[in-house]
Amino acid sequence: MKPAGAIPLGYAADDDFMLRIGGERVDALIAAAGDTPLFVYDAALLAARVARLRAAMPGQLAIHYAVKANPYPPLVAWMAALVDGLDVASAGELHRALDSGIGAGRISFAGPGKRDRELEAAIVAGTTLNLESAGEADRALMIADRLGRVPRLAVRVNPDFDLRGSGMRMGGGAKPFGIDAAEVPALIRRLIAAGADWQGLHIFAGSQALDAAAIAETQAATVALAASIAEAVGAVPPLVNLGGGFGIAYFPGDVPLAVEQVGAALGETLAARAPILAESAFAIELGRWLVGEAGVYLTRIVDRKTSHGQVFLVTDGGLHHQLAASGNFGTVVRRNYPIAVANRFGRAVEEEVSVVGCLCTPLDRLGDQVGLPRADVGDVVALFMAGAYGASASPAAFLGHPPAIEMLVGA
Ligand SMILES: *Cc1c(COP(=O)(O)O)cnc(C)c1O
User: Fold this and answer.
1) 111 alpha-carbon distance from chain centroid
2) Fewer C-beta neighbours within 10 Å, C or N terminus of the chain?
3) What is the atom index within ligand 1 of the atom nearest the CA of 285?
């Protein structure tokens, strides 16, 4: 038997072992949706997550939600009411963010390869563009000039450091993201001289870190870098976006991130910041940490078979909806996400099974030799940690099955 990750807090079953999500029974949720597979997002867990983060972080720190983690419109609208800003990475996400009702002034748009029409959409809306290159800066200034608008421009910095223990490296050395730190002051002076509304700095050094000390160290380095850039420019950045990088405990042995420890350290870092940043506002932008644990992927067993003594539960879901759980989204070694039989939730382990999807590829494995209560055709498998980088980060068109249904419950 291979271990699976720990089921996140906040999930429980009725007396008949039926899992509840967002206060609703899984059988009722599936009946309401009309079919499986289904992503269910728990609105109360999302709100609790934001509340915990606010309590942990220094009072002046703004909290932004990175829409790419989960762009499902009802979830974006729910998050928009809880956080201080939305970060988007395409014109498509920008429109979803605007549709959420949050003001354009509380949206920022990062990401490499913005096309002219995306820059134009942001400038017309009055959203902040986090510039990823000098060339993009030139195009933004030209477009703004043509439109007769004053563009809101921030500069994304490629720092010379990296977030230690980060699952995905986004800074340090040659990168497609941001502008090398040494070139940033001259660019900002140019933006200001061109009459742009300079909004500040965006420094994002990594993702999926569980080590509070590593995040605290990166945040301290980020604040120091922002100060040295501000000194070199001779201007106060209105906002310093410190990035994110907060990870969640997907796998066996992972210890959840101590955000309270990160917040305490950040409080000290901000209290000791250089005088040039005294009037600056600060933000962090998180995706995965805010929404990952609040989502569950439900898929029904359509076949049960044995091959060379191994039991396979074949489901109607798969990697076309939940690529990350199959181990094919940025992981080197495949490990098991937290998994359960939704209508036997909390029952004892009875057998070792492999849970696979319905795609005709050996990559489509949702649980590899996991211990579960006995499950048969018609039962429902629940895969946890499905709130971030699930439906929108999976190759939904692969093999021509229908897309997963999504639901936000408890809002
Ligand atoms: C992807 C991304 C995020 C969100 O990262 P998480 O690991 O989901 O928190 C935030 N900011 C930027 C610029 C990103 O590209």
Assistant:
1) 14
2) N
3) 10
- The closest-lying atom of ligand 1 relative to the alpha carbon of residue 156 is 13
**What are the tens digits of pLDDT across the range 67-110?**
999 999 999 999 999 999 999 999 999 999 999 999 999 999 99
Tell me, yes or no, whether 353 and 259 share the same domain.
no
SS3 (DSSP) at 392 = helix
Cα separation, 128 vs 113, whole angstroms = 16
DSSP string of 367-384, one letter each residue: EEEEEE----TT-EEEE-
226 within some domain: yes
User: Where a domain ends, among 286, 301, 332?
Assistant: 286
Give the end of a domain, one of 243, 266, 286. 286
Whole-structure pTM value: 0.96
CA dihedral 72, 73, 78, 80 (to 10 degrees): 110
For residue 171, the model assigns a pLDDT of 57
Q: Is 365 in the pocket of ligand 1 (CB under 6 A)?
A: no
Residues 120-146: tens digit of each pLDDT: 999 999 999 999 999 999 999 999 999
pLDDT (0 to 100) of residue 163: 84
CA of 286 to the centre of ligand 1 (A): 6
Residue 261 CA to residue 354 CA, distance in Å, equals 38
- Report the separation in Å between the CA atom of 37 and the middle of ligand 1, taken as the mean of its atom positions: 26
User: DSSP labels for 182-234?
Assistant: GGHHHHHHHHHHTT-EEEEEEE--EE-B--HHHHHHHHHHHHHHHHHHHHHHT
Nearest residue to 104 via CA among 124, 78, 74, 118? 124
User: CATH number of the domain that 26 lies in?
Assistant: 2.40.37.10
Q: Is residue 59 part of a domain?
A: no
**Cα within 13 Å of Cα(142), Cβ side:** 8
Q: Is residue 239 part of a domain?
A: yes
Ligand 1 atom nearest 388 alpha carbon:
8
What pLDDT is stored for residue 172 in this prediction? 66
pLDDT digits (tens, 9 = 90+) for 317-355: 999 999 999 999 888 889 999 999 999 999 999 999 999
Q: Which residues of the chain have pLDDT under 50?
A: none
pLDDT at 168: 56
Per the structure block, which two tokens stand in for 298?
């439900």
Pocket test for ligand 1, best of 285, 293, 389 (most atoms within 8 A of CB): 285
> Would you name the residues annotated as active-site residues?
360
- CA–CA separation, 97 and 364 (whole Å): 32
